[in-house]
Amino acid sequence: MESKPYLMKYSYTKVFLFLIIGFGFITSNLKAQKKTFEYHLTLQGEASTGKYLPFWLYSNRHGIVSFDSPESQAIFNFQKNLMNHHSGFDYGFGATLVGRYSKHKTIFFSQLYGVLSFGPFQLKGGRFYETLGTVDPSLSMGSLAISPNATPLPKITFSVPVYTDVPFTHGYVEFKGQMDHGWFEENRQIHRPWLFQKDGYLRFGKNWPVRPYIGLTDETQWAGTSPYKGNLTDSFRSFIRVFLNESGHGTKNRGENIYHLGNTQGIWDFGFYFHFGGYHMILYRQQIYNDKDGLTFQTPDGMTGLSIKVPQKTQHFIKKVVLEYLYTKNQSGPIPPGGGRGGPGGRDDYYNNYIYRSGWTYEKRTIGNPLFLNAYNPQLKIVANPHLNTKNPYGIANNRIVAQHIGLRGQFSKSLSYKVLLTRSINYGNYYDGDLYRKKGLKTDFFSRPKQWSFLTKFSFQPTSDSYKSLTINLSLAGDFGQLYQNRMGIMVGLKFRGTSSF
């Protein structure tokens, strides 16, 4: 759950520092133009009525806030943003340095990256914040692909990051997409596996009041070193198989020979953009998959949401509303997979994998939706995991979930704004762990299908006076009530100082 207390633990950190320096060298002889440099310093602290913080005080915060109470952080961020995603050549860079004071003291870079762009194309390297999947990151419970929950993986990304006109369609068809190569950490069940990620989106309609869109994201963990089978394949031929989602013919693992190489998962992401009378709405569906059943929509599992942005002239109290419903209980049924693709294909076990048993996690945080609780969470009394004992758990302990969520953002006045998150969930654990512990006669946290309520209310005060306009005061109140966690209340207080400069 914790980042290690070293600024330069991994060699690729130095590589990315050189990359950023290189960007500056490349651009030093370019024609001067006005650039904007942004920076801010945040000082904040958290405490709760229990040993651990409430769910929405530590979730979806890029791994900056740990579970522990009390805790405090000093966060320094600086960045040079791109001038325009469709301009000529441009460059950017940024870093977020976090100092955390708690039971687990640490200093680490939550972000450290450089970016080059030319027209609609972008090359980005390092560790940087991103959300993959159509949601509002600040109000959503979390995308099923990549949410802001974990510390970002270091990676290199080539992308068209924003919707761009497809040639000869006059703007009625737009495209965006990306390809990534990333590195997982070494302290996991498979030592230092790689990430290959790709996604592509199409949007239709130009200036129509209703614009449909559809996208497919695909993430694969592969390579690395297994404690049981040694070095896993990392050849160029294997990369082509990963890229095409083909089976790993001739590899050491029978399952990869039958199905596909590595641990592949992702989402179908589709819906509609609406624009009526100043209202901007997005109706979205994320269909989760990790096998052919999910890809062909043979399971009802996924997340459905509606985002409503209120017209500017009527934003007296509410600016935006997000409503979401998550259902991942089916998983293609309770029958385990058969000996091949023609056999039964149930128990999809989202975010878990029989080879890459640490699952869809990074630095012991779930990369996707945070309601998928991973087995590292210290608040779970008995962590169900079939592969290791409860003293050394790994993987996702809870991936069969039914949840409803609402997010609100608005303003009471010019200087006082607010945000509200409210989530209700029923948690079924997962198929495999339930079977294991049922045979042993043990009761896990999920034996009774615990119901859980979690909320967050955040108030932000920004003085209108010119003397203090760079200051924001934040106050958050949060709580957990139900059977999964102990009932508790928590508070977060913070000061944020920000500034900009031109060069």
Mean pLDDT: 86
H-E string: HEHEEEEEEEEEEHHEEHEEEEEEHEEE
- Oligomerization status of the protein chains: single chain
Helix content: under 10%
- Cα distance, first to last residue? 39 Å
Give me the secondary-structure category.
mainly beta
Which blocks of ≥5 consecutive residues have pLDDT under 50?
1-33
How much beta, percentage-wise?
Answer: 35-45%
Total number of beta strands: 22
Q: Which value, in Å, is the CA radius of gyration? A: 23 Å
Number of discrete helical segments? 6
Major sheet details: 18 strands, antiparallel, barrel
Shape: globular
Description:
The strands form 3 sheets. This protein has an 18-stranded antiparallel β-barrel. The chain contains 6 helices and 22 strands. With about 500 residues, it is mainly beta. The protein has helices spanning about 10-25, 55-60, 235-245, 255-260, 290-295, 430-440; strands spanning about 35-50, 70-80, 90-100, 105-120, 120-125, 155-165, 175-185, 195-205, 210-220, 225, 230, 265-275, 280-290, 300-310, 320-325, 360, 365, 400-410, 415-425, 450-460, 470-480, 490-500. It is about 10% helix and about 45% strand. The protein is globular.
